[in-house]
Design brief:
The chain is mainly α and 320 residues long. 60% of the residues lie in helices and 4% in strands.
Length: 320
Amino acid sequence: MKRHLILIASCLFFSGALQPAVAVTVVPEGNRNASQPGVPAASAKRTREMNTTYEAKYQKIYNLLKSDSKLRSKIASVARTYGIDPVHIAGALIGEHTYNVDAYDRLQTYYVKAISYVKQGLSFDYQGETIGAFVKRPQFSSCAQFKDSLRLWACRENVWEQNFRGKTVGGKQFPDNRFSAVFFQPFYAGQSFGLGQLSPLIALQMTDMVNRYSGLPKLDADHAADVYKTIMDPDLTLPYMAAALKHSIDVYRRVADFDISQNPGITATLYNTGGADSRAQALANINAERIATGQELQFPEENYYGWLVNEKIDQLRSLF
């Protein structure tokens, strides 16, 4: 009987091992949308107030990349470290500085700004409660199981959404706003910084990967000035950009069975929107239903930001 059970178990093991893996579908280059999706009103308003145009802003960041061989070399080197095409990093830079903030004319300006933030004595808090104290509240106890920075801070963000956002807890009213806006932007809401326009929360999520790949010290939310210096200093922020882009590529392959590494417009879209994990899972759920009903797969699609990256892809590739 025992030998019989072992034989059955062995057959099950080997039959499972011989099952073909789910095929990963390559997302080809180019845009799925024939015309550019709508640009948010806030971006249009910001551009008008700066008395400029999207094309002028695009040319400014593109010219910075084209004229600064040291910056291109840094991008190429970081891309090799993280195993991604440098055009993904260039695409994210193009999108951020075309639709969000205007680029500085010289890379050196970012280094100067980075030093200035270290001197400001910043902290991440809300109404006097530091983020370090806040995440010690019992609502966050389930997050203690996660030892890696990405899952830890993703868990904390979910707890915020479910238990604190727009609610009164322990007599304290919390804003109906994103976790990153409430605790991680001490100057004004919607704020991100530096060449890569990274938010402090994204930097905290990616710090373990950057430590593993680049050897940079891990960031600590209780040392806000170090976080801001990191996202302002080009030598430090580029690895964090690469880590965020690599994570999007990895999670779409693992969860949604799509290889998006050939489409910088998709990775730029995810850099812009964030939430690659939840978006990959949502797409996987949609396609599971479509497969079950004999429909074709739904592919990832670019937003307005990623659409521009794909539209300008020949210019971006010429940089490297």
